[in-house]
Amino acid sequence: MKKRVLTTMLLASSLMFAQNASVKDFDHDGIPNNSEKILGTNPYNADTDGDGINDLKDKYPLNIDTKFVKSTGANDFKIREVLVENNYDEVAKKDASDHLEIILQNKSAKDISNFTLFYKIVDLKTGATQSYILPLKGFILKANAKKSIHIDTKKAKNHFGANPNSLYYNSKNKLKVFVTVNAKGYEAQSMTIKKDAGGTEVAD
Ligand SMILES: [Ca+2]
Ligand SMILES: [Ca+2]
Ligand SMILES: [Ca+2]
After folding, report:
1. Do 131 and 49 form a contact (C-beta atoms < 8 A)?
2. Which ligand is located closest to the Cα atom of residue 26?
3. pLDDT tens-digit map of 180-199
4. Which of 32, 106, 134, 146 sits at 20 to 30 Å (Cα–Cα) from 158?
5. Ligand 1 centroid – CA 139 distance (Å)
6. What's the rounded Cα separation, in Å, for the pair 157 and 48?
7. Ligand positioned closest to the Cα atom of 27
8. Which of 91, 110, 88, 117 is closest to 191 using CA atoms?
């Protein structure tokens, strides 16, 4: 009898929790947070892949529907490094953290802005792919300087929103990450990196 009461109570409380969770929709895209987790979309971004189509209407919310057009112009900046988990950061002489980090170098005497990032994640075991466009609003690469772009869930300067439900965070398989950085009026720069199998380490 006692056991039955407990089960009923547990059921009732989990139902209440499910109802509460289901009505939460942080990004107001019409998809509840818990459904975004199942779909693999970003609960903090109404347009997860950045292609201009809202998650609810997007047939492929994790792969851009439009073609990413590379910027052209002066070849004045380059990607110095792309860091992922299990990388050794040659510049800082320490292990790289788990998030995606792109280190840019300005080779010119002029500040560069108006950056947009395109990145594609391929799960090398399942073949699943995801592609994202991310405008890097407010990011300025000063003349002759190097600076990192961080793609994670931190809200800080030079940090830009990663999808917490993406392959990057949820697949334990070996991944390949293709990165292209656009800057209006400048030659786009690309780099590819592999992320070893295994989960992201919380300790980093
Ligand atoms: Ca939502
Ligand atoms: Ca969303
Ligand atoms: Ca979209």
Report:
1. yes
2. 1
3. 999 999 999 999 999 988 76
4. 32
5. 26
6. 20
7. 1
8. 117
